[in-house]
């Protein structure tokens, strides 16, 4: 392999500093930015989003300043069919998706790496906050970033060994403050550019408006049910509710009610007391392990069921080739199908999968 690297550049400060560091270390770099939306889409999305004209221009400017070539890769169709469609499918099936994980797996890494190899480049790099290590068996693991507040291993658990063997993560040893300082000291135009926080294709955090526009479907009202099956009101469409939600239900009752289940088959939303939100056992499917090919016996680990959540101790039990049962030492609140459960062994991410249902 050579030292030629495709650097996936979003137009933000993190990927720009990643490119700077690689150039400083003698890599032959080419910046690439994904175009994910067509002109009609941009008008209805946020002004700042992955693949917008503004971000593409910022990435071009940084590449020019670093004396490296830049290219735009059009992946509009792939993004719609894979990421946006999955987002809609999971919501209408009663879950809550994590589109960034789907995008990383199928678009930002596989898509970019495939293009890199065709272009004669052996590696790709990103501005994610994490590191990778090769263990004694020759497998690649993800190591948490030094800056725990920025660690992004949760978002990357689904990457294959082939992809990890060709990916570089230059920022794993840096804090966000370090990255911004490097950008300022080297006159990168986006040193103080605001980080993207929301889902890039959801304007004003109104995902229901996106679902209606993207699918053409109208929300279908149905029954709010108590756990015993008693109907106590009408919801405005199951896609508009999340497990654990309390506000916005529009139900007057003698004690607080929380969403504890959604059933797309009969279009009902079940509500109940807060204690019904807790469970100690969680089934996880579409599992990808980094530390080994598959799990043959139960192991102790920690896991978190949302990106912002703290890890909790659990035992991972194998169920099938691609599914496991997590048994937590402490009950977990508002476990949500469609979200990702990610597994850790101390500072290493060892795998993860999609939450199917809880017991």
Describe this structure in words.
By secondary structure, this protein is an alpha/beta fold. It has helices at 13-24, 39-42, 53-65, 76-92, 99-118, 161-164, 176-185, 207-215; strands at 4-8, 28-35, 70-74, 123-125, 130-134, 140-144, 167-168, 222-225, 231-235, 258-263, 268-272, 278-289, 299-304, 312-320, 323-333, 340-345, 348-358. The chain folds into three domains: 4-205, 3-Layer(aba) Sandwich (Rossmann fold), CATH 3.40.50.620; 219-272, Roll (SH3 type barrels), CATH 2.30.30; 278-358, Elongation Factor Tu (Ef-tu), domain 3, CATH 2.40.30. The protein is built from eight helices and 17 strands. A six-stranded antiparallel beta barrel has the order 12-15-14-13-16-17. A five-stranded parallel β-sheet has the order 3-2-1-4-7, with helices on both faces. The protein has a four-stranded mixed β-sheet with strand order 9-8-11-10, with no helix packed on it. α1 (13-24) packs across α7 (176-185) and α4 runs antiparallel to α5 (99-118). It is globular and about 65 Å long. The chain starts with a strand and ends with a strand.
Please give a handful of descriptors for the protein shown.
single chain; 359 residues; alpha/beta; SH3 type barrels; Elongation Factor Tu (Ef-tu), domain 3; five-stranded parallel sheet; 8 helices; 17 strands; globular
Strand order of the largest sheet: 12-15-14-13-16-17
List segments where confidence is low: pLDDT < 50 over at least 5 consecutive residues: none
Query: H/E order of the elements?
Result: EHEHHEHHEEEHEHHEEEEEEEEEE
Q: What gyration radius follows from the Cα positions, in whole Å?
A: 22 Å
CATH-defined fold name of the largest domain: Rossmann fold
SS-based class: alpha/beta
Tally the beta strands. 17
pLDDT average, as an integer? Answer: 92
What distance lies between the first and last C-alpha atoms, to the nearest angstrom?
48 Å
How large is the count of helical segments?
Answer: 8
Largest sheet: 6 strands, antiparallel, barrel
% residues in beta strands: 25-35%
Within CATH, the superfamily of the largest domain carries the name HUPs
């Amino acid at each position: 392999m050579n030292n030629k690297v495709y650097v996936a550049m979003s137009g933000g400060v993190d990927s720009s500093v990643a490119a700077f560091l690689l150039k400083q270390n003698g890599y032959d770099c080419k910046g690439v930015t994904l175009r994910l939306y067509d002109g009609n889409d941009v008008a209805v999305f946020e002004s700042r989003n992955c693949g917008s004209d503004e971000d593409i221009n910022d990435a071009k400017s940084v590449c020019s300043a670093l004396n490296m070539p830049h290219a735009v890769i059009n992946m509009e169709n792939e993004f719609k069919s894979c990421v946006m469609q999955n987002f809609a499918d999971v919501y209408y099936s009663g879950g809550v998706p994590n589109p960034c994980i789907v995008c990383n797996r199928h678009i930002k890494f596989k898509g970019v790496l495939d293009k890199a190899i065709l272009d004669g480049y052996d590696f790709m790099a990103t501005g994610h906050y994490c590191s990778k290590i090769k263990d004694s068996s020759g497998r690649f693991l993800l190591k948490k970033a030094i800056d725990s507040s920025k660690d992004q291993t949760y978002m990357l658990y689904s990457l294959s060994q082939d992809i990890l063997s060709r990916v570089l993560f230059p920022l794993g040893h840096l804090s966000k403050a370090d990255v911004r300082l490097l950008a300022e000291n080297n006159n990168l135009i986006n040193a103080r550019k605001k980080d993207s926080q929301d889902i890039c294709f959801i304007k004003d955090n109104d995902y229901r408006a996106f679902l209606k526009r993207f699918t053409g479907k109208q929300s279908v009202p149905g029954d709010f049910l108590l756990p015993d099956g008693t109907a106590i009101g009408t919801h405005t469409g199951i896609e508009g509710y999340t497990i654990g939600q309390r506000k916005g239900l529009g139900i007057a009752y003698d004690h607080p009610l929380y969403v504890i289940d959604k059933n797309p088959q009969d279009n009902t939303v079940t509500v109940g007391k807060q204690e019904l939100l807790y469970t100690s056992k969680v089934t996880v499917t579409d599992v990808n392990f980094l530390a080994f090919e598959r799990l043959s016996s139960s192991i102790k680990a920690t896991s978190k069921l949302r990106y912002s959540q703290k890890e909790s101790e659990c035992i991972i039990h194998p169920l099938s080739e691609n599914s496991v049962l997590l048994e937590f030492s402490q009950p977990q609140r508002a476990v949500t199908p469609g979200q990702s459960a990610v597994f850790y062994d101390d500072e290493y991410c060892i795998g993860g999968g999609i939450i199917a249902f809880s017991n």
